[in-house]
Amino acid sequence: MTMHCTHFHENLFAYHEGSLSDEMHQSLKDHLSSCDACVRLSAEFENLSNLIDKERVSEPSPFVKTRILQRIESEFEHPETRKIPVFVRILQPALIASALLAGILIGSYSAKTGHASDDQLLSKIDHIEFLKTDLYISEMMDEDKILVLNK
Amino acid sequence: MTEQELIQGVLRRDRNAFQYLVNQYQKQVIKTAYYFLGNMEDAEDLSQEIFLDIIHSMKSFKKSSALSTWIYRITVNKSLNQVKKNRRKGISVRLESIFNNPFEKGRRQDAEPSVISAEYEEKEKRDLLHTAINRLPENQRIAFVLNKFDEQPYKQIAEIMGVGLSAVESLIYRAKMNLQKHLVHQFSEYQNT
To answer: Is the ipTM, as predicted for this complex, more than 0.90?
Structure first.
């Protein structure tokens, strides 16, 4: 690669855009007539410029307008389908999970502390038995009364 | 419909105003997005998000610039964000479009090998061009794409970017120098393979 090649590389855009002075343009043109590598480079660069022209004339699909309008309509007809912010999306399940966890913890804690001692349980059972016996006696007495009346 | 009526209509969420907005600006939005993304399907998909953004943020439009300039700004920002997202995802957008587009697939089956080769070569070159453009610093990229692809005059680019005319000139000049350097390097590698 010669100094002329470097000079050409540094002025590729300007050479192809035709924005160089006449003198400079002619000097690079002279170099191209004797350098195959720079000719190839120049051709490749020309191809890229043509590609930009091609991209410029690319047209969107004819149905795109309908798609955009449908998207806008669905957004305003169903505002609830709008994007939920990321922090809400993370926070919501986290809150639900922690509420469930708190429920489980409270439940297990109260189950533990809610157990009566054995003595208390026994006295409750005694009390129930006493009530049952009382009820039984009063029923017996009622039956006696009925029998006396029948007689 | 005047610009003022359009703005008021969009703020009222009037369906006619939405239609007018899309009619007036769809080409501008999609083409600009396409120049940054290098893929028409992606640009069309992104245009939906861009229009929603325009509608949602219409109340913040200060009218210190033309509506089209403001829409350009939103389009450029959204497109650059999308390029970043694609880069993060490591998606080769162009390759995906070649292999997943049924139209392309159908065409490839019918096409002559020489046509396929020419198409492939063109896609490869386009890829090279967009890779080189995407390597430019953001401001240089915006100025270069708006000028070379979108053919926007320096004054309009200055308004879109919120900088002075001389800054735009300098950005475009530096973009060309950087691209030149990158492309010369790529071409010499390409020729050596």
So the answer is: no
